[in-house]
Design goal:
This protein is mainly beta and 325 residues long. Helices cover 2% and strands 43% of the residues. The chain contains 1 helix and 29 strands. A hairpin with a 6-residue loop joins strand 20 and strand 21. The longest helix has 5 residues.
Length: 325
């Protein structure tokens, strides 16, 4: 594997195109905006997160068991290896970290496939990482995949089988459901959603009253929405957007990671790149990276959308601002 970091000082390498379904798309992305390729050569890039204290991006290469650090006009660095599996024997095709966030305390939180846990690590060099949770009712998770934290401190994370060697048939499975879990600030873990086939990405609306979930099932390729009650429990689950027909048409990718902007629009990876949905679930258009696209997140001043797309790390300038900026 050869990783190439592209210089942005010269003419940047670009990929893909914009696909517009509604003129409102241009209120969020300029018609002349280009998808810049920042680096390439990864096995399966995932989980981009911007570190405000330092102005750099971290992202996972799940099969490579590595977290990389990208910083403008600097060489790409290995930030953490191993990132999600610390064992010595071969584990699976996707042993490393997947989804990453910076929590409200400024620490890196990682979904670790191989070690089957959610961890927290200071970025100031003072101490190593420690588990937030590695089991539910004494049973190991399948492979925590993506995570979001509310301003109250509550974590929500998904637990599909993608990090297991034999996926849903893996003999080491201890939990029947591919669930969504809530971790309270006291550390209490609750399985809050248990009836999904392939829960994947998670995000919160700007007012944090809605939890969005992407389901990576090609036959039920949904973006789901759940209201959160006063105790932050998801209720009233519903399909916000159905991408199944887009999958059947042969567009690359499945619903995966997703984020919201300050206006409540949903930027979700899916068939055909990054889909932009209105808060009501109307498809406004797509940022088509021409690659199966795993995740996205805002960085810099909150107007650049960074995207992990197969073996690429990309970004595009938007006319909106991401939640959290």
């Amino acid at each position: 594997m050869t990783i190439i970091t592209h210089s942005l000082a010269a003419q940047p390498k670009t990929t893909g195109s914009l696909v517009v379904e509604n003129p409102a798309f241009y209120e969020l992305v300029d018609k002349n905006a280009q998808i810049e390729v920042l680096a390439e050569g990864f096995k399966w890039s995932e989980g981009p997160v911007w570190v405000k204290e330092g102005s750099y991006l971290l992202f996972s290469d799940v099969p490579a068991n590595t977290i990389y650090k990208w910083e403008e006009n600097k060489p790409l660095e290995v930030f953490l290896k191993p990132s999600g599996y610390t064992g010595k024997m071969p584990y699976s095709n996707e042993p490393g970290s997947n989804g990453l966030i910076i929590n409200i305390e400024g620490q890196l939180v990682a979904c670790e496939h191989g070690d089957r846990r959610l961890t927290q690590m200071p970025l100031n060099g003072k101490g190593g990482k420690f588990p937030i949770t590695d089991n539910w009712n004494g049973k190991r998770y399948n492979s925590p995949n993506d995570v979001v934290q509310s301003q109250k401190g509550t974590y929500f994370f998904t637990d599909p089988p993608y990090g297991l060697a034999d996926y849903e048939k893996d003999a080491s499975r201890e939990i029947n459901e591919f669930g969504i879990y809530k971790v309270s600030i006291s550390g209490q873990v609750t399985q809050v959603i248990s009836d999904l086939i392939r829960p994947n990405g998670v995000a919160l609306s700007p007012d944090e009253k809605i939890l969005y979930v992407a389901q990576s099932d090609p036959d039920k390729a949904y973006i789901l929405a759940y209201d959160l009650d006063k105790n932050e429990n998801p209720i009233n689950g519903r399909v916000l957007f159905d991408a199944t027909e887009m999958v059947k048409k042969g567009l690359k990718g499945l619903p995966d990671g997703l984020k919201t902007d300050k206006q409540g629009n949903i930027f979700t990876t899916g068939p055909g790149g990054v889909l932009i949905l209105s808060p009501k679930g109307e498809l406004l258009g797509r940022i088509d990276t021409d690659q199966p696209t795993s995740n996205c997140n805002w960085g810099d001043d909150g107007s650049y959308l960074y995207m992990t797309a197969n073996n690429f790390l990309c970004r595009i300038k938007t006319k909106t601002i991401g939640k959290g900026f």
